[in-house]
Amino acid sequence: MLLCFWLFLIPPILCTDPGVKVRLTEKGLEYGRQLGVASIQQRLKTIKIPDISGKESVPPIGKVEYSLTNMQIFNVGLPTTAVDLVPGVGIRQSISKASISLNGNWRVKYLRIIRDSGSFQLNVNDLAVTSSIAIRSDNTGRPEVSSVKCEATVGSATIKFHGGGSWLYNLFKNFIDKALRSQMQKQICPLVADAVSDLNPHLKTLNVIAKVDQYAEIEYSMVSSPRVSKSYLDFSLKGEFYNIGKHEEPPFPPEAFLLPPQVNNMMYIGVSSFTANSAAFVYNKAGVISLYVTDDMIPQSSPLRLNTETFGKFIPQIAKTFPGLMMKLLVKTVKNPVITFLPNNATVQASGTVTAYAIQRNATLTPLFIIKLETSVSAKVFVRDTRLAGAVTLNKMNLTLGTSYVGDFQIRFLDSIFQMVLKVVVIPKLNAQLGKGYPLPALGQMKLVNTVLLVLKDYTLIGTDVQFTG
After folding, report:
1. Which of 354, 346, 470 minimizes the C-alpha distance to 419?
2. pTM value?
């Protein structure tokens, strides 16, 4: 729940720039406040007031023995609650003008032999609570919260006795009123602390290590203390991809970026180009940015086929040396693709090779040539559920001959074939993977609504409201 972000006093964890930033706005804090009121209200209803008994001198009767028993709270009202951001300090949560109503039984004995009993109702008004919440990282890298400061005051109260000689109680109700309010006041801050601790199970659902697929995972641990301003709270997260089971740092560091002032949504997530490029590094390291292209992947309607007959029209020696054979292409990257974010523009530069093989009748592969391939693609980035996804389209392609096993030939004649292979096979396969997306930082059953996305310089900004469904 967004209450989990009512946090401060986080000790520094790492001295590094984040790959991902999360900003909680005043609108988000307001949603958290609404969720928090229900939690605190339920906790205050659990106040247990022990039986109270004693003796008081009541003129002209003399000593009166009394007891109050079976006291139960039946209503808690929290009409005024607030959450304030204190720049450079943290968050202050306050409750004012609250009320608590309880009922119970009374019993008296006076003049040694006279006994009487009845019921009573106590209404406490002007109850006020001010509390602060601290957070520290647990041993899994997730945040853990606790109440570090709490002040509670119980204001005015009215008590009404019913039944029997209740007029007796009215003679010394001020004493009873004070005793009941004292019992309440002792328990309020511990219960508020319990309400804060109730957040920790929710915090443990934070996907600090989020699995993407069988090759990669992304880490969202905090790298520094949150930044508190007058109108928002910023969290700095690592936001780095790793190969599963092997955390190797990429050969480039994250670079600092600043989120712009935005207030329309509850939460903003900034995903830097570092995060995207760490993904490219991981998948290239895993050797999975490669694809074998065979003729059955080419649309039947295409006149260009992956066989020595088609290629022989451009490179005659292929048709002459390997007549009537099918072909296979291996497309793979030779270095890490580079993702760049500019305003309203996301591009990917990739360097790779295409190795062409003739498929012999005994299924062995004979290399024909290796083409060096430089491509630029435009990327569309979007949010799907709680995942950041994408799709690419080809901008331009440049071919140069790397190695030929069939003699010299003019590479430009192959442009149309490789344009077709990229557009109808490689890019659709890539988009199928990109469309699955990778998980954004999230808590439990968190749902993103009213989401907007902007591509800015060096990062992508996601603005969203949040709902918790569980």
Report:
1. 354
2. 0.85
